[in-house]
Amino acid sequence: MKLSPIYYTSEERSRKESIENQTKAEIEKRILALTDTMPSAESARLFRESMQAIKIKKKEKYIKLFYDVVASLTEQLADTVVE
Questions:
Q1: Confidence tier at 81 by pLDDT (50, 70, 90)
Q2: pLDDT of 82
Q3: Could you give the C-alpha distances from 25 to 8, 32, 47, in angstroms and in order?
Q4: Between the CA of residue 37 and those of 3, 19, 79, what are the distances in Å?
Q5: Residue 14 and residue 5: Cα distance in Å, rounded?
Q6: What is the mean pLDDT of residues 11-24?
Q7: N vs C: which end of the chain shows fewer Cβ within 10 Å?
Q8: Are 72 and 43 within 8 A, CB to CB?
Q9: Average pLDDT for residues 23-52, to the nearest whole number?
Q10: CB neighbours of 20 closer than 8 A, spacing ≥ 6?
Q11: Which residue stretches of 1-83 are H helix?
Q12: What integer is the mean pLDDT of 44-62?
């Protein structure tokens, strides 16, 4: 059984769960989870390929890719609601 941390304040939770405080492995899992929900299979494939290309790079590249994926997913979901 995996234990979850207990946070005393919402600020403490936000700080810990912030993408900047995640490990590369955790960021990678979050990116993959987001790409799995993308309506565009082509976009999801491109982001997964981008992630493979930065596999041994710095954490900052993972963070940038995460924000790119979030922006793309937001845009795709907005487009599907409008149509």
A1: low
A2: 56
A3: 26, 11, 16
A4: 27, 19, 14
A5: 13
A6: 85
A7: N
A8: yes
A9: 90
A10: 63
A11: 10-17, 24-36, 41-53, 59-82
A12: 86
Q: Does residue 16 carry a pLDDT above 70?
A: yes
| Gap between the Cα atoms of 81 and 14, Å rounded | 29
Q: How far is CA 83 from the centre of its chain?
A: 25
Comparison of pLDDT for 63 and 17, the residue scoring more: 63
End-to-end C-alpha distance for the chain, whole angstroms = 44
Query: And the tokens for 48?
Result: 């997964």
Say how many residues make up the chain: 83
Amino acid at 42: E
